[in-house]
Write a structure and sequence with these properties.
With about 425 residues, this protein is of the alpha+beta class. It folds into two domains: about 25-135, 3-layer Sandwich (Rieske Iron-sulfur Protein); about 145-425, Naphthalene 1,2-dioxygenase Alpha Subunit, Chain A, domain 1. The chain is built from ten helices and 23 strands. The chain has helices at about 5-10, 20-25, 145-150, 165-175, 210-215, 295-300, 325-330, 340-345, 365-380, 410-425; strands at about 30, 40-45, 50-55, 60-65, 80, 85, 95, 100-105, 120, 125, 130-135, 155-165, 205, 205-210, 220-225, 230-235, 245-250, 255-260, 265-270, 280-285, 305, 310, 400-405. It is globular, with a radius of gyration of 23 Å. The mean pLDDT is about 95.
């Protein structure tokens, strides 16, 4: 468990909070490209409690600015997209994507006042349907070269969802591999051919993943620190059928790369909106086939509402809990979409869980290791030291779900990844 003081240190991200100072030193998702797809490409964004506006200028470049005009605080979300930037309707001040004030049309013609204005602005990068921003000091770090960023766009799909709880609760559910045997248990196995785009509804070596999780509930969990965070290996002994091996990666500080199927991975970030809310952002990446984006989008829009990406099943309606379903179909009674299960696990402890009251067990091995890493990095940044690097040139990261021979399973995840890359039309040389 953590002390009350440590819990505050790792959960609070607004203002100059130490955890926020750490997270700001990494590229963070700010929005989906889809959010700027209409006739007016400008949206409000809240990150780390900071009120911002994201827009796309006439050149197609993205800018993330303080939401309130440097003149007298008018809301730039209502700004005019013209003249190479975003113009405030109050007095016409014009700002470009770097926060430079280009014009102050009400000032005298020979005035140079506009050159003295430095409006808060953060650099942005777009990758495969997602817009990332760097909100930290100095120059941003190199952008990571994860598979989800290297893959051609047609092999990826990006989406996000709102969570009514602190960011750390979401991360810790993601690096807890033991919960899948319970929280995501289905009493009947679905045909994998009908489970496209749905996690834990596929098969591993022709064995339904739901069956593996349901029948082996005491996995062995191994945690290894890497140059970019942690590798988490979850082992389930299937007896004569071999050893089920599932590899998840924690890409420090708040990204997780997990296997969705033998061909697809999910790269997911949990980003603080403020200390009581966060978004999960995900890029689904297929190694072999172009992603059916419409099917993936339709599945998720059956659960999430636009424009805020809030789930239809939530705290206000008990996450759709059905006691009859809990007896006959699912372990939670909360439907067939595991995002609902995860949201319940993240949100039901409260907006910010008091970790001084918890009792961790052996299955929390990755959570314990992550907290040590997080607290160490927070302390280092607070002392003026550099944040840990994320491994810009990292291959992968390797993230698979496979079964190895019972007497020779070590290293089977590497062979599985190599075979997948050999079959891939884009990942062979990575």
């Amino acid at each position: 468990m953590l002390s009350v003081e440590q819990n505050q240190r790792v959960t609070q991200t607004c203002g100059n909070a130490p955890a926020g100072e750490l997270l700001r030193r990494y590229w963070q998702p700010a929005a989906l490209v889809d959010e700027l797809a209409d006739d007016r490409p400008a949206v409000s964004v809240e990150l780390f409690g900071e009120q911002l506006v994201l827009f796309r200028d006439e050149k197609g470049e993205y800018g993330l600015l303080d939401r309130h005009c440097s003149h007298r605080g008018a809301d730039l979300c209502f700004g005019r997209l013209e003249g190479g930037g975003l113009r405030c309707p109050f007095h016409g001040w014009l700002f470009d994507i770097a926060g430079k004030c280009l014009e102050q049309p009400a000032e005298p013609e020979n005035s140079n006042f506009h050159t003295k204005i430095n409006h808060t602005a953060y650099p942005c990068i777009e990758r495969n349907g997602m817009i990332f921003a760097y909100l930290g000091p100095g120059n941003p770090p190199p952008f990571p070269s994860f598979d989800c960023f290297v893959a051609p766009e047609e092999f990826t799909f990006a989406f996000k969802g709102h969570i009514d709880a602190n960011w750390l609760q979401a991360v810790e559910v993601g690096i807890d591999p033991a919960h899948a045997s319970f929280l995501h248990r289905f009493f009947e196995d679905k045909d994998p051919d009908e489970g496209y785009g749905q996690q834990f509804r596929d098969s591993t070596d022709e064995i339904p993943v739901t069956k593996l999780l349901r029948e082996v509930v005491r996995p062995i969990i191994e945690v290894e620190e890497t140059n970019s965070g942690m590798s988490i290996k979850t082992l389930r002994d299937l007896g004569n059928a071999g050893m089920h091996v599932r590899v998840t990666n924690l890409m420090f500080p708040n990204a997780i790369v997990i296997p969705m199927s033998n061909e697809m991975t999910i790269s997911q970030w949990h980003v603080p909106i403020n200390d009581q809310e966060c978004y999960w952002y995900a890029i689904f990446t297929d190694f072999e086939r172009k992603v059916n984006r419409q099917a993936m989008r339709d599945q998720r829009l059956a659960l999430y509402t636009l424009p805020n990406y809030k789930p239809l099943r939530n705290r206000t309606n008990a996450w759709g809990y059905d006691p009859k379903e809990q007896r006959t179909q699912t372990y939670t009674g909360m439907g067939m979409d595991i995002n609902v299960h995860d949201n319940w696990a993240v949100e039901s402890p409260g907006s910010i869980f008091d970790r001084s009251n918890e009792h961790l067990g052996t299955t929390d091995k990755a959570i314990i290791a992550y907290r040590k890493l997080l607290l160490s990095a927070i302390d280092s940044v607070a002392l003026g030291k550099a944040a840990p690097k994320q491994g810009a040139a990292l291959k992968g990261p390797l993230s698979v779900d496979t079964i190895g021979a019972a007497d020779n399973w070590e290293g089977c995840w590497i062979e599985c990844d190599m075979a997948r890359r050999d079959r891939s039309p884009w990942a062979k040389e990575i």
